[in-house]
């Protein structure tokens, strides 16, 4: 059935204009100043609103077995939470269990994701290195449509990989036209600092922040950038949370390296003081890696979004209930790492970004959908309101208000790290591939309606990168034969 979105202002990453939008089935078929409603079409009045691409959150962990438990939101409730906040696609991480092949991990995640109510894709994690991993990476890219590989430089003894493994994997990514992702924290130093603070008697959640200072992230970000450069690969740095990490990325970009950075909405508005709250539950609920930072780092992240040295705002939605967090009572290293945020990312970014004049509406679209769609090589199928694009659309009322409260959220956990945050600017309707998935508080999306989005390798950046590399590769010097 056709839907005509009438009277709104269409905002894409590169322009905004008054236009009607016609959706037929799963696709946008026309964007024009005036469109007559086809017979039988549902007409949605968008007067006074912005009509924007549905958000893409490229960093989520649904039903993720981690630190002795499993994250609380599954693909059904995670994607429903996403839709209620204007996000129409998530990209989750397939993380092989110890000894498990990537191919088996992929099957596990496909199975878990059958419940999804919105579209989804995957990144694959490289948690060890071997001939099998090298071979499987090709299947992951060519058969499974995954063009991104995640590397944890933290979580020593669990997911962490070393520099040798990073180098090998980055080279393989370059060959396959895939993008390596890094969780950049120096896991060896974090481990030592954790032991140090525990020995000092710091057992509460504040120890989590003390043991993961900005320096461990700055060092690892810089190291990953240099290794990627030597391996001939672009690089995407997930959850860039602090000035030293952002500066490493900005420096690399100024030197012509293809490096991307992803701040989280949490790091943009919440700070380290949360861990000093006298209520243990309050502080533990906010334990995630990297931790929230001293406030001065936020200015650097905002500046990165404004100047283009940081491109994407994500959530790392990895939610644990208060009960699960209490596994770490008496030892902060056992508090499951992760927070929620899927349904809040866009309203909080609009409020703290657009309403304050830090971001334009177009930059908001770039940071919430278009930039990551281009990095993932799915643009303009996703990330654009244009004829031919998937009808993933959010109709946004810049005057609508709400105060965030866990009592009204879709996510299955019992608290919200943004509790009490007043938002101005909210989704009123979210369309997911042409269906009205959420409208003014009415969640209509059904379990299982989401679809897997496969992605091709070799986005333009890779082609340019490998051409440059090939033309500028160091070569053996030709010398005249030296007779003995
Ligand atoms: N970020 C976090 O604390 N938990 C999820 C796993 C990860 O991305 O590091
Ligand atoms: Zn994560």
Automatic annotation (TrEMBL):
It comes from the Bacteria. Its EC number is 3.5.2.2. Keywords: Hydrolase, Metal-binding. Its cofactor is Zn(2+). One of its GO terms (molecular function) is dihydropyrimidinase activity. The keyword tRNA processing does not apply. Residues 50-436 form the Amidohydrolase-related domain. Belongs to the metallo-dependent hydrolases superfamily. Hydantoinase/dihydropyrimidinase family. This is Dihydropyrimidinase. The gene is hydA.
